[in-house]
Amino acid sequence: MKIGLIGTGKIGEALIRGVLTANLTGSDRIFASDLDTERLDALHSELEVTTSTDNVDTVAGAETIILAVKPQIVGVVLESVKSQIRDEHLIISVAAGTPIKTIEENLPDGSHLIRVMPNIACTVGQAISAICAGTHATESDITTARRIFGAVGRTVVVPEQMMDAVTGLSGSGPAFVFQAIEALADGGVHEGLPRDIALELAAQTVLGAAAMVLETGEHPGALKDMVTSPAGTTIQGIRALEENGMRAAMMAAVIAATRRSRELGE
Fold this sequence. Notes:
Elements: E1 3-6, H1 10-21, E2 30-33, H2 37-47, E3 50-52, H3 55-61, E4 64-67, H4 74-81, E5 90-93, H5 100-104, E6 112-117, E7 127-133, H6 139-150, E8 153-157, H7 163-171, H8 173-190, H9 195-216, H10 220-227, H11 233-243, H12 246-265
Parallel strand pairs: 1-2, 1-4, 2-3, 4-5, 5-6, 7-8
Antiparallel strand pairs: 6-7
C-alpha cells in the first residue's frame, strides 16, 4: 500500500514506524508532510521515507492518506488538498474530537473516510485504536484501517456515537493510569522501597495485570479473586481502596473526560 501522512507528530511518526516494522509497506511507499523541516529531515534520514513541506505532494503519492493534525487546522489542511483527492483515495482522520460530518464537508462528495481514535501508547506499539466508518466507507476501507493501526496495537470498530466515550476511556485513560502507577510507587517508597525500584515494580505490575485481562479473557473481578486470599494482605489493600473511593474516582474521571469530548465536538 502507498501511505501518506499529513502531520508527523507523535502519532504520525509512530504509525510510520509501526507499518515499517510490520512490513505492511516499504519506506519508498510512505510519504509524509509537515511544516517542521527539522522533523522531516530526521524521518527521511532515519527511515528513508519521502518527505515534503507541501501536503499536495503527499496526497499525489499516496492511496491511503492519514490526517494526523490538530483538530483546529483540519479544515484548512483539507481545503489545501481537496482538489487533489481522487475517488480511489482512502482518508483516515485521527484528529481528536472532529466528527465525520465536519471532515466530509471539507472533502469531495463520495470520499471514502475512516475516523480513528488511537491513544498515546501507539508510540510504544501498545495502543488501542477505535475505528468508525464514514458515510461512503466500505468493509475494505475498515480492513485497511485495522491493518495500519493494528501495527501499533489493538483495534476495535465502533459506531461514531461511541467515540466520545472512547476518548474519555482509552484516549484520556493513559493519564489516569500514569497517576495510578505513580501512586502505587509512592506507596512503595513510603514503605521503604527506593524510588526507581518502586516505579519499576508498579509499572510492570500494571502491565502484567492488563496482559492477564486481555490474554485470559477472564473478568477482572475473577482475576482479583485469584490474588485475594482469606484474611491476607490483598484483601486489606482492597478494603482501603474501597474506603477511599478508588473505583468511583476512576469512573468519574472517564465520565468527566467523555463529557468534555462532547463539548469540544459541538
